[in-house]
Specification:
Blueprint: E1 4-12, E2 22-29, E3 32-41, H1 47-64, H2 69-88, E4 96-97, E5 99-105, E6 108-114, E7 118-123, E8 126-130, H3 136-143, H4 148-153, E9 164-165, E10 177-178, E11 183-184, E12 190-194, H5 196-199, H6 204-212, H7 216-229, E13 236-244, H8 256-264, E14 282-284, E15 294-295, H9 339-361
Parallel strand pairs: 2-14
Antiparallel strand pairs: 1-13, 2-3, 3-4, 3-5, 4-9, 5-6, 6-10, 6-11, 7-8, 7-12, 12-13, 14-15
Helix pairs in contact: 1-2, 6-7
Amino acid sequence: MSTTLHIHGVSDPGRQHPRNEDSWMTSKINTAQLLIVCDGMGGMGAGDKASQLAVQTITDAVRSSSLPPRPRLQAALTAADNAVRLAMCTKQAKPGSTAVAVYVESNQATVAWVGDSRAYWMRGGAMLARTTDHKLVQTLVDRGDMTEEEARNSRYSNVLTRSIGGRAPDADPIEIGVLQESWVLQAGDQLVLASDGLIDLVSDEEIAEIIQERTPKDGAQYLVDLANRRGGHDNITAIVALWAEQVPTFVGQPFGHHQAEEKATEGFAPTRDTTPVSGGGYAEDEDEDEDDKATVLASRSHEFLSGHLMPDTPEPAEVRPPTVAPAKRPAVSKPGPSPAVIVIGVFLAVMLVGGVVLWAAG
């Protein structure tokens, strides 16, 4: 039996958003597998359409290209950026999307991305590598002006420096992030693609631990459910892929603090496995019928700066947090002295003056 990629994706709107603007897709292209997660945002509520257009454009571009994997992915994400800007961005609205794509051929995983949706490479319950976010706070961390802890708690933690779309139709092309070395997979290795609705609430270490103990289907579902139990502040998407001859059978219950957390949240309805649900992204095989495509749609809320995404900054030294005037405290009227205090004060003043007069007369 040959080693192959066993894949499962789950997406959910989260607990604070009525609509899901994430889109995802897994697609078999000849002997390779393509995995994509896009997280739409902004633009008069058109983030879901931007992420769907990005996913479809990337898939079509990869499928029709004969380039090697690295330039193939780079060209595909550039095509998605052009498509979203030309089709959707106007003076009034500039919807955009993040994008992360992994192209697996043989045991080589090629990775490209824009924004803060991530790809992870896991082995034996530990993270070997992941993509680096295209965010303002990450630029400041890389420059030594901010710690990782400060970045997590910063008010600018959602400000992107790069996006698919989110800019004028005639804007300069975006710089695509592409790993220069492919990830060389060994049997049992796992890949995870995720939007920030998951990343914000589940640590890298927890992701590695959780998927190590579960099948791709159970692992992806558990990650999404855990993010929802922790607040579900954004749309949540996770694709989990296992490089193996077959999916092992896991026996047992959730472990460690995750098990305790499940007991503490008894009664919470877990999110449904959304793989077969119609929506804005889908898992497909190259030879399957259109009606058999399993689709899923999924939302987010990246922050904009003065109505626009932070522009890409080739010189990190020039990046500074925006100047924000501190909020004015509301005026608070302090209570005046009571009548009794006033009377006592007058009496003491009279006594003092009288004493001074008698002393002077004597």
